[in-house]
Design goal:
Layout (H helix, E strand, L loop, with lengths): L3 E3 L4 E2 L5 E7 L5 E2 L14 E6 L2 E10 L10 E8 L2 E7 L14 E11 L5 E9 L3
Parallel strand pairs: 1-10
Antiparallel strand pairs: 2-3, 3-4, 3-5, 6-7, 6-9, 7-8, 9-10
Bound molecules: zinc ion.
Zinc ion binds next to loops.
């Protein structure tokens, strides 16, 4: 099996890929990037929490124009995962308003976004429609 590395450090790979967030121990605000202090309350204690892998689409935009080399159209979305907002693209779904709608149930999905010369795969994530 190819060696795999996550594209972002808050994506945890393995049998059960998931996102992890830094949660402020004082006010409960969650951040995906590393912070020295909470943007909500200014305190500096964080704990690491797993973010639910299923959620629903809270907002989305169908992006028709992007930087050269980025295939378009694609769907940029904000997904509410059990109260944690996650910015991600929707994948494995046609990028049009007939297939993407607000409050659509989705789940975390990973995809290979690149391979280096040693065969190490970079793994990114998005959300795909949840069947059923
Ligand atoms: Zn806080």
């Amino acid at each position: 099996m190819a060696n795999q590395i996550p594209l972002v450090d808050y994506l945890v790979l393995g049998d059960r890929p998931r996102l992890v967030a830094h949660e402020c121990t004082s006010c409960g605000a969650r951040f995906f990037d590393r912070r020295n202090a909470c943007a909500s309350c200014g305190l500096t204690e964080f704990t690491t929490v797993d973010v639910p892998t299923e959620g629903e689409v809270r907002a989305f935009t169908i992006v028709a124009f992007a930087a050269p080399g980025i295939p378009t159209p694609f769907v940029a979305a904000v997904v509410d995962c059990g109260g944690t907002s996650v910015r991600a693209n929707l994948i494995n779904v046609p990028p049009d308003p007939e297939h993407v709608r607000l409050a659509m149930p989705v789940r975390l999905a990973t995809q290979v976004v690149g391979t280096d010369e040693e065969g190490t795969e970079a793994i990114g994530f998005g959300f795909e429609p949840k069947e059923g």
